[in-house]
Each structure stands twice: as C-alpha cells, then as structure tokens.
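Review form for a predicted model. The reviewer records the input and the model, then writes brief findings.
Reviewer: anonymous (R2)
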Amino acid sequence: MTLRFYDTASAEVRNFVPIEEGKVSLYYCGATVQGMPHVGHIRSAIAFDQLTRWLQFRGLRVTVVRNVTDIDDKILAKSEASFAPDFTPESGEVPREEWWALAYRYEREFLKAYDTLGVSRPTYEPRATGHIPEMHALIQQLIDRGHAYPALDDSGDVYFDVRSWDRYGALTRQNIDDMQAAPDADPRGKKDPRDFALWKGSKEGEPATASWTSPWGAGRPGWHLECSAMVTKYLGTAFDIHGGGLDLRFPHHENEMAQSQAAGHPFANFWMHNGMVTYQGEKMSKSIGNTISPTEMLELAPPRVVRYYLGQAHYRSVLDYRPTSLQEAAAAVERIDGFLAKAAARFGTDFGFVAGSFGSSNGNVQAFCEAMDDDLNVPRALAALHETVRAGNTALAEGDDDAARNALHAVILMTDALGLNAVAGSDAVSTREAEALGVLVEAQLAARAAARAEKDWAASDAIRDTLNQAGVVVEDGPDGATWSLKRD
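Model under review:
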C-alpha cells in the first residue's frame, strides 16, 4: 500500500507518510457561520470526509479538526442588519439578533447539513471565540521574533509584517510585489498595504460583547490567526494535512502558513484543496441567479443521491451542476441498491465476511483500492464499484452464488469506504428490509411463473401489474423473470 496525494505547496503528487506511524492528523477549514451553508461548503466537507474514511480504511488512526469561525466582520454586519427571530411588527421594538446568537443559529444549520449527508463528526470542532488566549500567545511570539507589530496609528490593530518573511507567497507561488493590498483593516496603520491583521482593535459602534481585552487593546482576532492558533492547540506545531476549498489558498492559507512558520512551527506537511462547484460551466452567483443550495438539492433528491453527486468527481476538479445532475446520480445509486436488494434477498443477512477486508481475488476491488490510494481518485473507484455491480447482477442471473456473494461483499465495503452507507436517514434499502422485500417479490414471481405455465395470462399480467404499482419492475428473459426497483 502506497498512499499518494497532491500537495499544493510543492505542486506535485507525493507519497504520503504520516509524521507519526499509524496516525494521521488532519485539519480542514470549516464554516464562517454568517449564513446558510452553500454547496461549496458541503462539497469540501464531503471531500475531506472521503479522505478521512479512506485513511481509516487503510488502518490509520485519524484525528480530525474542523474549525468554526464564529466571530467575523460579516457576522457582525449581518447581526447589525437583522431582526431577532421572534420579532413581530406588533411587538413595537425592533430587536437585533445578537451576533453570537446568529452565529450559533447558522452553526446548527451547518451541522444539520453535514449530518444529513453523512459527513462524520470531527474529533474536535473548536470555535474561534473559545481560543483567544492561544491567539494572544501566537501574536506575542510573532512580535518577539520580529514578524508582527502594533499598528502605527494606535488603533489597537496588530499586523503581520509580510516583508519580514522571505517565504511569503510560497504556497501560491506569487511575488509579493504583484499581490493586492490586504483589505482586512485600515491601511493607515500598516507598514505595507499587504500586511494583514492578526488582531483588530475595537471600532466605535461595535458591540462590547464582540471585544476581548489584550496587551494591544480591546478587540478581536483576525481571520487567518484563528486557524493557526486552533490547529496548533489540537494537532501540535507539525501535523500531516491541512485542507480546504481552492478559494482559500490565498489569502487565507497563504497567511496561515506564513504566520505559523514565522513563529517557528513546521506546520502542515501536506496542503490539499478541493475544487469549486459551477452551474452549467459558469461560476455560481446570486446576482445572476445561477445557484443551487444544499437545501434545494435535498428537495430534489434523497440525501444519499446528493452525497453521491457531490462526491463523485475527483476532489481537485471542478464539479459542474446541471439540471440533470441529480437524476443521473439517482440512476447510479439505484443500480447499486438494486443489486444489494437482490443479493440480500438471495443470501439473507449472513454475508459470511469480516468488515474491513476485501477478497484479494476480486480484480475490481484491487482497482478500487489502487484508485483511492492514488490521490483519492473517486471517479476511477466508482467505475470499479459499478463494474462490480454489473458482475454481481450477472452472477445472480446465472446462479453463480460464489461470484455473487463475492461481489456483494465488495460492493458493501466499497460503498462503506465512500460513506454512501452512512447518510442519516439513508434512502438505501437496509439488509433486513431488502431481505423481506426479496422474499415477497420472489414469492409473487413464483406465483406468476406458475400462472404462465398454466397459460393463465390474465393472472400473470395481474401479478406483474401489482408489482409495477408497488415500484417493482419485472423483466422476462430466457432464464426466467428478474426484477428491480423502479426509478422515480
């Protein structure tokens, strides 16, 4: 087994060797909880959930940290412009929803979406507001090492001095003189417009609850600083993988890497970034109306289908949404479930295998594993999965129980590895349900076969029509009748 992943920092696929044998430390950027989750958030979470599951499948113990940014300029702005959830015009006063209440409300929406789509809960999910002392300590380290300074205008801001760090721009391979100014604070207090805020002094009109005391004055942390402080607390100064969406490479991850390494921390051994989601080839934009949210997707398709769609592309590639995308994903999921249902009906609940092990004689299994080991190549892995489904259906039709059972084992473990069997409230047919359904359908098909033998075509057609109304499609072939579940 050789795991290989693409490292954004080196721009190459490298062999993955954990810092500590048998263990993997993974941090990926979670949400800034200023609004409802969008499809990019969920695609990223599914991509790193697939990574986590595969590392675990390969026998590694994975510690996962996913942060929650619960204090931010946009959160404060949305709070200022909001009404409290229980506001009614008749109540007279127009109360504002406090920033912390707004943040917590949206944090729960993210958790609901993650859970619905089978994204595993991380080992730790720290909030930025719970780690202010760690942020103060990191800022002081940077000041002491000559890489940060209090604002020149006494505003209470503290900035990272990008010119002091000769590797600034290394992650995204940019020249510092070609970069735009950092827009996260008033430039009047900066030595260089590109210097970014580590600490943001309190401003007039901001709520007192959004401010913490510090050696540099009351204020709140800068966005980039939060992640560096939290990952160091939970995973140490050197860890295996830092992940997030492609849009976070600059400035967020560039700044994270610079401030952490400038503080003397080795930081991430691998940087992994997932691609964006487009709408019929174009960037999604609310202003032109070409967006679709996870909530809208879940109104169009069951959770398992949505997860299949959002996780089917290679994690580094663009995932393009089209009006037929969920229908195509549903057809793929139904092919898998149709085989599982028929195989469960044939073999019952005693599959006779140990979870976590594949039969070495199954070439499709080997292809699946090789694909996942090779930079998490899910499209190739899915091709192996569907080839196994086809082989399993053929084996069932031909009465080759050994081959069918082997395919059943493989399909279950492949879908487990991809998280397709972990969706909350999954629409997948459970083993017990599949077995019961199979027994009932096979009994009806036996009665239909007897009617056809007696040339009682009316009875035969009536059984077929009853099954069809129940969502079961019957197909007659030279070796008898086969059945599958009808697509919506």
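Findings: Confidence is low (pLDDT under 50) at residues 353-360.
Further findings: Residues 234 and 283 are 35 Å apart (CA to CA).
Recommendation: see findings above.
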